[in-house]
Amino acid sequence: MGMEDASYDVDNTEDVNEILLQVCRVLSFTVIINTLIYKLPQMVVIIRTSSSFGISLRSVIIEWLAYTIMLTYQFAMGFPLETYFESNVTVFQDLILILLILKNRKLIEPSILRYYFVYFVFFISMAMRMYPDAVMYISISATTPMLCWSKLNQLLLILKSGNAGSVSAITWFIAAYNTAVRILTTVVITKDFPMFVNLVSSEVFNVAVFCSVIYYSYINKPPPQRRRYY
C-alpha cells in the first residue's frame, strides 16, 4: 500500500509539473505578443506630442544595457529561446526609444557612434562566450541593481515633478505583466537564481512606476469644460 501511495504521489507530481510547463509556454507566448508592442505606446506618445517630458533618458539607457546583458547571458548559456525571446525585441525597441528621445531633445551627434561601436563589440563577444564565465556571472548579477536604479530613477522623476508627463502607463503595465510571467518561467523552467532575483526586484519597481503614472495622470487630468447653453 505504501509503494502504491508513493507511485501515486510521483505520478501526481509529474502531472502538475507538466501542467505548469504547458501554462508557462502559453504565458510565454502572450509575453512575446506583448513585447512586440511593448515600447510602441511610449514611442507613439513622443511622436504625437513631440515631447519626451517626464521620461528619464538615463533610465532608458540603463534599462537598454541591462536587457542587453540579460539577452546575451541567456543566449550564451543556451537557455530555451521561449524564455527570453522578448529580450531581443525589448533591446531593439529601447534603442529606437533612445534615438527618439535624443532626437526630440536635439542631442544626436556623430560622437555617439563610438559608444554604439563599443556596445556592439562588447556584447557580441559576450554572446559568443569569449569572456570567462566569471565575467558572465558578474554581468548578469549587475543587471539587478542596474534595472532597479533605472526604474527607481524614473519613479523618482515622476514623484519629484508630481507629473507623469509623457510616460506611457500602457508600456509600464506591459512591463509588469511580462516580468511577472518571466518570474514564473524562471521558477518552473530555467531555475536560474540570479535571473529570479533580477526579475523580482524589477517587478517591484515596474508596479510602482505603473501605479505612479496612473495616479499622477488622474490627479493632473484637466477638469472637463462645462458646456454653455444660450
UniProtKB/TrEMBL annotation:
<protein>
    <recommendedName>
        <fullName>Solute carrier family 66 member 3</fullName>
    </recommendedName>
</protein>
<feature type="transmembrane region" description="Helical">
    <location>
        <begin position="114"/>
        <end position="131"/>
    </location>
</feature>
<dbReference type="Pfam" id="PF04193">
    <property type="entry name" value="PQ-loop"/>
</dbReference>
<keyword id="KW-0472">Membrane</keyword>
<feature type="transmembrane region" description="Helical">
    <location>
        <begin position="195"/>
        <end position="218"/>
    </location>
</feature>
<dbReference type="InterPro" id="IPR016817">
    <property type="entry name" value="MannP-dilichol_defect-1"/>
</dbReference>
<feature type="transmembrane region" description="Helical">
    <location>
        <begin position="83"/>
        <end position="102"/>
    </location>
</feature>
<dbReference type="InterPro" id="IPR006603">
    <property type="entry name" value="PQ-loop_rpt"/>
</dbReference>
<dbReference type="GO" id="GO:0016020">
    <property type="term" value="C:membrane"/>
</dbReference>
<keyword id="KW-0812">Transmembrane</keyword>
<feature type="transmembrane region" description="Helical">
    <location>
        <begin position="20"/>
        <end position="38"/>
    </location>
</feature>
<keyword id="KW-1133">Transmembrane helix</keyword>
<feature type="transmembrane region" description="Helical">
    <location>
        <begin position="59"/>
        <end position="77"/>
    </location>
</feature>
